[in-house]
Amino acid sequence: METLQTYLPDFFFLILGLVLFLYMATDGYNLGVGIFSLAARREEERGVMIHSIASTWHASQTWLVILGGVLFGSFPVVYGVAMSALYVPVMLMLAGLAFRGVAIEFYDESPNRARWGLAFGLGSLVATIAQGFTLGGLLSGMPVANGQFAGGFGDWLNPFAALIAVGGTAGFVLLGTTWLAMKTDGALRERSIRAAVIAAWAVLAGLSVILLWMSLQYYEGRYSLLSLRQGRYIYFTLPIFLFEFAMLLRSLKKAEQDKPFQWSVLLFLTLVVGLAAALYPTAVPPSLTIFDAAAPARSLWFLFFVSAVLLPVMLAYNAWQYLVFRGKAGEGPQEGKAEN
Questions:
Q1: What's the distance, CA 89 to chain centroid?
Q2: Which pLDDT tens digit goes with each residue over 29-57?
Q3: How would you classify residue 134: left for phi > 0, otherwise alpha for psi between -120 and 50, otherwise beta?
Q4: Nearest to residue 180, comparing CAs of 115, 264, 295, 94?
Q5: Cis peptide bond prior to 89, omega within 30° of 0
């Protein structure tokens, strides 16, 4: 039992990576659809976009709640440091998500749909940018003293975090447009495919700039993800990423039905795996490790058994939901208006 106990921080590090990926892959396309809806040509077109995610966006946000709960339970020091350092972008993210949720619920009930359609798009954009600054602020490195954040109020607002925010926005737009290419037909599907190609190249360009920035910081002797113990593992996932990127472009060129979205999700999985491999065993860069930040053993065991029950149920529910609401947007229950 004591041997297993030593691996509990590693287990929860993996669980956090898995939940982060599930959130990015599921709510990412919802936010991407919202951002793309700002370019809708007609209100009816925006309505189709909203209906395409109406049956899934509630469950997708649950992964964000699970992420926060697991982080608080397994690595409370990380939770305290991150919330202190990233209070502003986290509050902006929550405000954007709330704004988006209210807009989706009110959209069909309001006589002025255009107003709520705009709120849906702007809320999605604010939430996405805030998430990018949250992740970028964390990866930028945080000074920690005696288990507490020792930096400044605006440390999260830096060029590297801005690069992450821009690249993340392009990535979510890619997920959203490939989702619409799978869920819609006609002119909207054609526009979504064209936008997905642009978003894909923007993701590749953003990743290239981010890697260049990290390399320059590293060779100048400054903190960079590459300066971590396993930082260079980021490069190990690049061949896989480039292969998936080529297959994504190929599927978009052929205007295939499901594969563009599937390849987009795999791109995000590769990025999360590369990031996790580079960070391990760091919890808060550059120096706080998961072993230093882990909760007491009893707390970790309790959370382990709760996770062993909760996560399979969550995964099964999400899989069943996507199975029930598969098909094109507007085909009966797929609008999110399933009959009881």
A1: 15
A2: 999 999 999 999 898 899 999 999 988 88
A3: alpha
A4: 264
A5: no
Rounded distance between C-alpha atoms, residue 317 and residue 200, angstroms: 30
- Backbone torsion region of residue 168, taken as left when φ is above 0, otherwise alpha when ψ lies between -120 and 50, otherwise beta: alpha
Q: What is the DSSP string of 128-194?
A: HHHHHHHHHHHHT---EETTEE-S-TTTT-SHHHHHHHHHHHHHHHHHHHHHHHHH--HHHHHHHHH
**Residues present in the chain in total:** 340
Q: What is the pLDDT of residues 90-122, one digit of tens each?
A: 999 999 999 999 999 999 888 888 999 999 999
Mean pLDDT of 184-194: 94
Collect all residues with Cβ–Cβ distance below 8 Å to 317 and sequence separation of at least 6.
59
Cis check: omega of the bond before 281, within 30 degrees of 0: yes
Residue type, 148: Q
Structural element, H or E, at residue 288: strand 288-289
Q: Under a CB-based contact definition with an 8 Å cutoff, are residues 334 and 327 in contact? A: yes
**C-alpha span between 45 and 50 (Å, rounded):** 9
Q: Is the pLDDT of residue 73 over 50?
A: yes
Residue 188's identity, in one-letter code, is L
